[in-house]
Amino acid sequence: MAPEIVLAAQEQQQSTQPKSVKKGVEGEAKPTREAEKKDEQTPTAAKSTATRTETFVFGIPQNGLTKKERQVPLDEPPPLAQNSELKYIGKPTPRYDGMAKATGRGKYTADIQLPGMLYARMVDATIPHGRITSVDTSAAEALPGVKAIHVIEHTFGIAALRDPKQEAPSKYPVIRYAGQPIAAVAATSPQIASDAAALIKVTYDRMPFVVDKQDARAPDAPTVFPGPADAEGSAGGGGGPKNVPQVGNVHGPERKKVGDVDKGFSEADAVVEGEYFTQVQTHSALETHGFVVDWKPEEVTVYASTQGTASVRDEFAEVFKLPKSQVRVITEFMGGGFGAKFGAGNEGVVAAHLSRKAKLPVKLMLDRKQEHIVCNRPDSHQKLKIGAKKDGTLTAISLTSYGTAGVGTGAGTAGPATNLYKCPNLLTEEYDVFINAGPGAAFRAPGHPQGCFAFEQAIDELAVKLDMDPMDLRDKIDESPTRRVERKIIRERTNWKTRKAAGVDTGPVKRGMGIAQSVWYRFINMDSSCEVRVSRDGSVEIMSSVQDLGTGTKTLLAIVVAEEFGISPADVVIRIGDTRYPIGPNSGGSVTAGSITPAVRNASYQARQKLFAAAAPKLSTTADNLEMRGGKVVFKNDESKSYSLKQIAAKMPTSEISARVTRGPEYAKERITYGGVDYVELAVDTETGRVHIEKVFGAHDCGRPINPLGVISQINGGILQGISYALFEDRVMDRKQGYMLNANLENYKIIGAREVPEIEIELVENYIAQSSTDAAGIGESAGIITLAAAIGNAFYNATGVRMRKIPMTPANVLAALGRVSQEETA
Amino acid sequence: MSDTPKIEVSRRGFLKGAGLTAATTVIESASALARDAKEAMQPDRSVGPDAVPVKLHVNGQEHTVTIEPRYTLAETLRDHLGLTGTKVVCDRGSCSACTVWLDGTPALACMTLGIDAVGRKITTIEGLTQGAEMHPVQVAFVKHDAMQCGFCTPGMVMTCAALLERNHDPKLADVKHAVSGNLCRCGTYPKVFAATLDVAQQHQRAAYLLTLNPAKEA
Amino acid sequence: MNKFAFVDCTTVDQALAELKDGAVIKAGGIDLLDLMKDGIVTPPKLVNIRNVSSLRGITASKDGLHLGPLATLSELAAHPEIQRDYSALADAAGHAATPQIRNMATLGGNLTQRPRCWYFRSSDFDCKKKGAGSDECHAHEGENQYHAVMNNSTCAMVHPSSTAVPLLAMNAQVEITSKRGKRSVPISEFYVPPEKSLINETVLQTGEIITGIFVPAPESGTRSAYQKYGEKESFDWPLADAGIVLVMEGERCRKAAVVMGVAAPTPIRSQAAEAVLTGATINEATARAAAKAAMQGATPLSQNGFKVQLFQTAIYRTILLAAGQMQRDPSAIG
Which of A191, A687, A752 is opposite residue C232, by nearest beta carbon? Predict the structure, then answer.
């Protein structure tokens, strides 16, 4: 079904998100206006460029690979063989910048030191809702070492009133959450900046506030906005539907309807119904958000801890009315983003103001408390109902969800319910609830972990009701061939066949197993360009503004270039994370690998062809008689003539040859999603409420894996973040005073070493014949979507009790197990 | 919460403590300030709150830095000595990203005052690499891809290398126990375990180095 | 952190001489720096006693265990005689905080650390413990899932020190020194409940420092254990814990000490639980009965009723661990 899925295909490049996702905070995939225009002019490869017919490997090896013919632009390389026949692609390759990371030499934004650099510190709101009546900076200005102070005039990241006149104008932005940035100070040391920040006196007119989502839905609740408000998304997504109804703090619904659910339920032999609750999760990237801005009249240089150098450049240019050509953004090493780091943000804009005022470079890194407050994954309260025939065929799905993205929107959860399985009748209604807390932001598979937690548990419940094995039910209703293969792998390689009936263990510790499935979508960002350069000494460089968040982009590019030139990935010089290079995609929504690698391969191919053309006359042959084979350049008509890349490059008439390529459209218009299946074995200690995850087996698909070593690292990460979300993490707000109580890494609990289970991962190769690499990202579908649901299903199998609330802490587990007596909950 | 707006001043407190005498000589050892009791009993022997020059022994070298007593060792290493391999993540001792060795023992640079590190042998992640040769744990981290964003990596490496110094044959449970204070958000733990156990199992440091083609990123 | 002066001492006398005008002791520095970074305390001067060698050392002798307050938690946990004869103390020290913190944190500092209550630790809140005008315990009507289930009507903080739990079960004494001389305080009297003082959690007065901790030698047949339970096993603050000392005569328990750390603002012994065990054969039934008795009279708050169950589990399992009838619990922290 999934009627709303928009394909990453020719005429739809500009809108590569399923609607459910787009309206939920989402990763990326939003090309610039220029790109959209260009697409309009050249909607498909076939129409705009001369092409040739090529035959691609297609399908999943476990099912037997087939062939697929595609029209391919003439300047693109021949199709790649399957991974087993390639030299570098698909082979585990150590991380390109691994040494720099393991030795501490890699310079992150937090590590940048420039001559004369100042350190900046934000001043944040100390009330959850109100108006600033005065900001007195005089004492701070008088402090020796203070070089600049900036008071914020506009706060980014907060929904805006549709009708600004509904609020009286004011000199300062209205404070809508505790921790909202108000001002910042730059000084010669971080300590002086901190001292000075403490000297800035802010007075407020307080207003009533609400930080509890349930309370906020009440008709008489204090309102976060005096009228309807909508949030803008960032380059990383974010922002919910606009111009939907709003009553009080309740914004929505965004309604999707297919068929007739009433009819569907009336036709059902079995119906399951339940309410599910998920919590707010903070990104907790280890490097906090931050910038070093060096404002010079001729150029503004920005070091940014960002997932999108291009997005940062664009926002700086927009906010400061600068030509993009005068903004340079650099991200060489980046300490994690998970969806939260796009654009300039308040901290980037403030750092720029301070640098401009002080005429010196300024570093502004958020502290850990601020990091917890500036963005999060929204929570959810979902009412879900599914109807099915005796054989499992789904007849109706209805979902109503309420979630809070604080002062933002984008808490929708309908992705999995809409897109996992075929169902003729669907109704989803998603509401955002405003509260006085920091804004939600894109966070690894926006909306999907929440949605999956409810939906895949409900599917499990349906299997129980239908007396079917949960795997069998999914075999019946799931049309994805990759997930079918993945389920087969899990059946064969785990203890699934020994799975017992629910809750049969005696004794306080009960064991169980469960699975859950994920769906993610192929998004392509057309702002995917690069230049590949070969110098006369045979050295090869690749340049793009794309950044490596730790996902291994650098290594990925090195492998693709290496494959084309027949040299070791370690011999390719990767220059990325700098907007002086050709524009690369912002990294969100798992777009990076799928978007940039075809451009890199095509550029490598074109540079190589140019090199052959330049060198051929000196070798007394023609370019089309040269080919790469086994890492050597050989004559097609005389294999004894074999040269190294270095030898060929030495024949170049100029010092360098290069090719600059922008990614072309997908080869065909097809709906493509990715999926994974995760299997969990766990033990529930029913007397402590601790859930111990003992084993996870993940079977996952990311198209053609380029570097399995890095892909597996990312899947490990998704699985562990998923466990962390399911068991530990929870933003706690004090409802009486409106502050976050655990804005630290002590009481905001993320998974530690002791909670790590045995993890086994199987990658399913999936050749889709859509680009010259067929690569795709794995960030979203890797575990984070499924784990809470898989744990929930395994918990049910262990105890016979359905956990409908996360995190599964001792408090929530003991309550669900009926271990907390009434008199104990006074 | 009240419905009637009220004016209030920022909660942030004012600075406290000022005006004490600064030392003029470089503080070289922990007991330099209290060489004998007689001297110690004299008033105003304290240093700060303004910056004082102190000598720190970092990675086998003496450095003189001028720091206020309130600067942490992490701040001192990063902002004053340019040793930015030591990361600050939680700044409260909860994540161990800032792990350094003090006299060979893993300790938190964010919860140690720079001035309190005087007289101690400080080893940072930069000091683990001998010239161009990486420590076997660093090599194994690269080989096993025991890193993603890499921000926890220096702290992880320092912790695991220290474990192997005192336990040449750790088991998985020992490694988990040793890194139970190190937080990683990307989920590199399984590979951190594998890398550390690999080093323990293979004492062939040279063989390791040959298996890797050091990337072009010196 | 606020600006402060720093003085390094090598003797107790020097340190005592420096303890004036708001100066505070710094040993391992873990808790103090944590408080200072959040502006909860802003001392003008730190008196560094970390280099006072007379305050170091662990000596196990016939009469008992003499502990220097600068002994680190790692040193306590690794000490063979503590592991053998005072195993609950080794458990508590060895599973506190993180390995790095255990290398730095001292016993004295661990015993005197301030409450971990998130209202107390947050610069966003004033509370009566901070001496502010506010008369509220925010936890009472607020987010109290981690707070006390007993003696919680004035202030619902939980006692933060793990090592205090076995030390109370073992009848330890704290030696306190000031310019006026030394005094020895049983640890049962060392901690001050909020009803007696909202500001001070211990009897330590300004100008006093801990100069020694003494644990009397165990009677023959003594077995002990400490376990704590939280939301995860890697670094976490306990939600429930139990320190158990049993003096066994064959199968029969002649004497028992049952102590809970994070049940109340101070570590407390449960005489009701001890009465169940004294004279009884230790088995799962008696252990569970003692655990249930320990929780009689619990007064949980709106969100922490689950801790009553968790404490019962902690106590019965730790009794069985002490008695050698159960392995260390994989659900326990550390």
Answer: A752
Rounded mean pLDDT of chain A?
92
Pairing, β C45-48 against β C5-8? parallel
* pLDDT tens readout for residues A10-38: 333 333 333 333 332 233 333 333 333 33
Question: Tokens standing for C171?
Answer: 């009848």
Q: Are A690 and C229 in contact (CB under 8 A)?
A: yes
pLDDT reported for residue A245: 96
Tens-digit pLDDT profile for residues C129-167: 887 676 789 999 999 999 999 999 999 999 999 999 999
- Give the span between the Cα atoms of C263 and C268, in whole angstroms: 8
Every domain of chain B and the residues it spans: 14-43, 45-124, 129-218
CATH architecture of the domain formed by B45-124: Roll (3.10)
Predicted TM-score of the model (pTM): 0.94
Is B213's pLDDT higher than 50?
Answer: no
Q: Which helix (H) or strand (E) holds A21?
A: helix A19-23
Looking at domain B129-218, its CATH architecture is Orthogonal Bundle (1.10)
Query: Which of C75, C98, C234 is most worth mutating to test chain B (most B CB atoms within 10 A of its CB)?
Result: C98
Contact across the interface for B145 and A96, Cβ inside 8 Å: no
Residue percentage of chain A with pLDDT more than 70 = 93
Number of domains in chain C: 2
We report the CATH number of the domain holding residue C278 as: 3.30.390.50
Q: Is residue A326 part of a domain?
A: yes
The answer to whether residue C46 is domain-embedded is yes
| Closest chain C CA to residue B96 | C100
The answer to whether B87 faces chain A, any CB pair under 8 Å, is yes
What SS3 class is residue C275? helix
Q: What are the DSSP calls for A542-565, one per residue?
A: EEES---SSS-HHHHHHHHHHHHH
Asked if the interface predicted TM-score (ipTM) of this complex is over 0.90, the answer is: yes
Interface probe with C: pick from B110, B165, B180, most Cβ of C within 10 Å:
B180
The count of domains in chain A is 1
Would an 8 Å CB–CB cutoff place B172 in contact with chain C?
Answer: no
The residue range of the domain holding C250 is 222-322
Considering only CB atoms, A368 lies closest to which of B75, B90, B142, namely B90
Given a contact as 3+ CB pairs under 8 Å, which chains touch A?
A: B, C
- Give the pairing of strands A690-701 and B61-67: unpaired
Let me know if residue C275 belongs to a domain.
yes
How many whole angstroms separate alpha carbon A587 and alpha carbon A547? Answer: 7
Give Cβ neighbours of residue B109 (< 8 Å, ≥ 6 apart): B72, B73, B74, B77, B86, B88, B98, B99, B100, B124
pLDDT tens, C162-206?
999 999 999 999 999 999 999 999 999 999 999 999 999 999 999
Taking only the tens place, the pLDDT of each residue in A399-442 is 999 999 999 999 999 999 999 999 999 999 999 999 999 999 99
- Identify the helix (H) or strand (E) that includes residue C34: helix C30-37
State which residue of chain A sits closest to C229, comparing Cα positions.
A688
Is cis: bond before A807, omega within 30 of 0? yes
